[in-house]
Structure formats: structure tokens, C-alpha cells
Write a structure and sequence with these properties.
148 residues, alpha+beta, two-stranded antiparallel ribbon, 6 helices, 5 strands, 43% helix
């Protein structure tokens, strides 16, 4: 029974509705909020980057890849952009607050602790360690395992 379900899901994901559901699910995990149907329609219909006017190439993983730009503080959708613009455009407030040079990692001087804070699937994660390398290992293992 499990093999049939898995096979069905693999085929379903290839359908237009399956692609839509997977895409919206990924956006939710990344913290995007809003009217997902409207945002998805705009995402599908957009052929050029809203910022630099570069034409997207379907299936491309580099500079020409289509990306969602959203405010990381509020979760609100901003633009459909190319990967180059998305990488260059960052939420400055988060970077200014980081004392480590890495997103979501800071140092508490009075306690002499490194802190990793992240919201994932609606839950806040907060991990503290005395060693910065342990915090970095935890962060990057999480990125590899959970793709958040």
C-alpha cells in the first residue's frame, strides 16, 4: 500500500496542482504570509525580474532562477526576483543585529554565550553554547537536514 501511495505522490507532484501545493508549502516553511493563490498566480505569470528586468530561464539554478522576495521580519511578499537580486537584497536590520557575521547567531557578552535563534514551522528554536563553532555546526546541520 505504501508503494502505491508514494508512486501516486510522485506523479501528483508533477501535475500543475501538485506543483502549486509544493511551492506554497515551501513558501510557508520559509515564513511567507499572504494570499497564497494570488501570489502563486503572480509568480507563475512573471517572466522577468521585478528589479533588474532579467528574463528567467525555466529550471535554471543560477542567476536566472526565479525567486520570491519577502520581508523576513513581517513575512509579507514583496517581489518576484532573479536569484542574483535576491542574493544581493538582504534585510539590513537582521544583519546589523548579528554580532557573529551569520544570520540568527549572536553573542551575549555578559553571559559569554553564543545564541542561535530561528523560527521553524511556527516554533521558536533557541540554542546556546559557549563555543561558536558548536553553534555554527548546529545551524548548518539544521540547514542540511531540514532545509530551513
Amino acid at each position: 500500500m505504501e508503494k502505491k501511495t508514494t508512486l501516486y505522490m510522485r506523479e501528483y507532484i508533477k501535475t500543475p496542482n501538485g506543483k502549486k501545493i509544493c511551492c506554497i508549502s515551501k513558501w510557508k516553511q520559509q515564513g511567507l504570509i499572504g494570499n497564497y493563490d494570488e501570489i502563486y498566480e503572480r509568480f507563475i505569470k512573471t517572466e522577468k525580474c521585478d528589479l533588474c528586468n532579467l528574463e528567467f530561464i525555466e529550471g535554471h539554478k543560477g542567476k536566472y532562477k526565479k525567486c520570491m522576495d519577502h520581508n523576513h521580519e513581517t513575512g509579507l511578499f514583496r517581489n518576484v526576483v532573479c536569484n542574483g537580486c535576491n542574493s544581493a537584497k538582504t534585510d539590513r536590520k537582521k544583519q546589523i543585529n548579528s554580532t557573529s557575521g551569520y544570520k540568527n547567531i549572536s553573542f551575549i557578552k555578559r553571559k559569554k554565550l553564543w545564541v542561535y535563534e530561528k523560527e521553524f514551522r511556527g516554533r521558536k528554536i533557541k540554542i546556546t553554547r559557549k563555543d561558536k563553532s558548536l553553534i555554527l555546526a548546529i545551524k548548518f546541520c539544521g540547514l542540511l537536514l531540514y532545509r530551513y
